[in-house]
Sequence to fold (107 residues):
Amino acid sequence: MLFTCAWWIGLWDLHVVKFCDIVGRASNDYIRCSVSTVQEIKAAIKALPDADFREVSRAVDEMEADRFDRALDDAAQSGKFDAWLKKVDADIDAGRTKPLDEVINDA
Fold:
């Protein structure tokens, strides 16, 4: 999946879809170019003015954080952390841990 990016006077709106269109507006002229590979997407982003680049960068960072959160939730729901949590509980029960404030104060 790639991105659909629409640019109207510096406003970017990103949606994940199966193709990528970048529509730019300069004065009254519209420029349309299709971008369908990762290499082309990178080149199009690289060519953006600084303010638009920062906006796209923030949007991609948010998407990455959302994907990470979903992956973490999926892993937790699937039981991937169950064995590790049992070990943590056993360490706490056996007194092999320190309260966080002690760890911070020892540092």
